[in-house]
């Protein structure tokens, strides 16, 4: 089975712009979660989608949004980028949103200048 | 809000020494999962514990889930350079939210 894929792998944006990141989960996985990881920091939970519905949301401003499509692929969008949004954005998929292990993609490294 | 405290934040060990990281939750968890993130990589699932008092072993790694299902530990015996990385614990709460620890970074001293 192919693993979780994320595109693009690297991205450089300017403050004030917006960005869309994409995640394709493992085939058959219906839950997709997004995390932000900054150097030396742990995993900050952004949101989780299951069957196109947002099930959980972390403590991030409304500039961060996401969606999931019927094929379980997911996108997250960050509008009005700030320097502090520079981070590794990780997507993880699991069979279900309940009590299953997560499989992470390689991440998208976003740099905001 | 609910959190999982993970300690220590860093641990420096000589190769061959043991390593332990601990997680403590403010509330009961339905399970505990452990992940490893190598430098420059992404977290990789290691194991899941579900039962109260459960102990599982993977070669030199021993995982424990506390009797009250609020705490867990990961112990590595005789560390090797391949063990370097950050170890995260995560557990599902009663609302099926996955709560993550901040991670423990294992550093092997040269």
Report on this structure.
The complex is a heterodimer of chains A (113) and B (110). With 113 residues, chain A is mainly beta. Helices cover 0% and strands 50% of the residues of chain A. Chain A is built from no helices and 11 strands. In chain A, the strands form 2 sheets. In chain A, strands 2, 4, 5, 6, 9, 10 and 11 form a 7-stranded mixed beta sheet that branches. A 4-stranded antiparallel beta sheet of chain A has the order 1-3-8-7, with no helix packed on it. In chain A, strand 9 and strand 10 form a beta hairpin. In chain A, 39% of the residues are buried. The model of chain A has no long low-confidence stretch (mean pLDDT 94). With 110 residues, chain B is an all-beta fold. In chain B, 0% of the residues lie in helices and 55% in strands. In chain B, strands 2, 4, 5, 9, 10 and 11 form a 6-stranded mixed beta sheet that branches. In chain B, strands 1-3-8-7-6 form a 5-stranded antiparallel beta sheet, with no helix packed on it. In chain B, strand 7 and strand 8 form a beta hairpin.
Give the topology.
The complex is a heterodimer of chains A (113) and B (110).
Chain A: E1 5-7, E2 10-13, E3 19-24, E4 31-37, E5 44-50, E6 53-57, E7 64-68, E8 74-78, E9 87-94, E10 103-104, E11 108-112
Chain B: E1 4-7, E2 10-14, E3 19-25, E4 32-37, E5 44-49, E6 55-58, E7 61-65, E8 71-76, E9 85-92, E10 98-100, E11 104-109
Parallel strand pairs in B: 2-11
Antiparallel strand pairs in B: 1-3, 3-8, 4-5, 4-9, 6-7, 7-8, 9-10, 9-11
Features:
heterodimer, A: mainly beta, four-stranded antiparallel beta sheet, globular, B: about 110 residues, six-stranded mixed beta sheet, five-stranded antiparallel beta sheet, about 55% strand
